[in-house]
Design goal:
5 helices, AsnC family transcriptional regulator, transcription regulation, single chain, DNA-binding, transcription, Arc Repressor Mutant, subunit A, 157 residues, Tscrpt_reg_AsnC-like
Length: 157
C-alpha cells in the first residue's frame, strides 16, 4: 500500500487533531498556518486517503465500571488459515476486547480486555475464550496500574 506524501502542514494538522479531535477548522487553520479553506481540503484529503481513520472520545474505563484490565495471551493448537480466521472473527465480536494483536513469541494473539471485576473476567474466559476452537493455552496478566495509554502516532516534522 502506497503511503501518502505528507508535508509539514499535514503533519501539523495530524498532531493537532490527535491532541484535540473536536478543534474547529478555523482554530486548526490558525494553529497550522493555513487558510480555513486550505486546511479543510487537507483534512478531507487525509480522511479520504485513510490517514485519518475516524474521530472518537476517550473514556475512562474505571468511571464506567470497567476497572479490571487484563492482557491475555492466547496460543493456538494448530496454525491454519481457517482456525486463525475463526478466532479472529470471534474475538472481534467481543465487546470486552479493546485490542487484539497477532504476535510472534510466546503467544499467537495478545488481547487487551476490560471487565468490571474478577468474577466478570472468569465468566468472559469460560463463556467466550475457552469455547474458541483451537486454543491450546491462555495466560492472563492483570494490570496493576496504567503507566501510558495513548492512541497518538508520532508525526514529527
Amino acid at each position: 500500500m502506497k503511503q501518502p506524501e505528507l508535508d509539514r502542514f499535514d503533519r501539523r494538522i495530524l498532531a493537532e487533531l490527535q491532541a484535540d479531535g473536536r478543534i474547529s477548522n478555523q482554530l486548526l487553520a490558525e494553529k497550522v498556518g493555513l487558510s480555513p479553506a486550505a486546511c479543510w481540503r487537507r483534512v478531507r484529503t487525509l480522511e479520504e486517503e485513510g490517514v485519518i481513520q475516524g474521530y472518537s472520545a476517550r473514556l475512562d474505563p474505571e468511571k464506567l465500571g470497567q476497572g479490571l484490565c487484563v492482557l491475555v495471551n492466547l496460543s493456538l493448537q494448530r496454525h491454519t488459515i481457517d482456525s486463525t480466521a475463526g478466532i479472529e472473527r470471534e474475538v472481534r465480536s467481543y465487546p470486552e476486547v479493546l485490542q487484539c494483536f497477532a504476535v510472534t513469541g510466546n503467544a499467537d494473539f495478545v488481547l487487551r480486555v476490560v471487565v468490571p471485576d474478577m468474577a466478570s473476567y472468569d465468566r468472559f474466559l469460560n463463556e467466550k475464550i475457552f469455547t474458541l476452537t483451537g486454543i491450546a493455552n491462555v495466560h492472563s496478566n492483570f494490570a496493576l496500574r496504567e503507566i501510558k495509554n495513548t492512541h497518538s502516532v508520532p508525526v514529527a516534522d
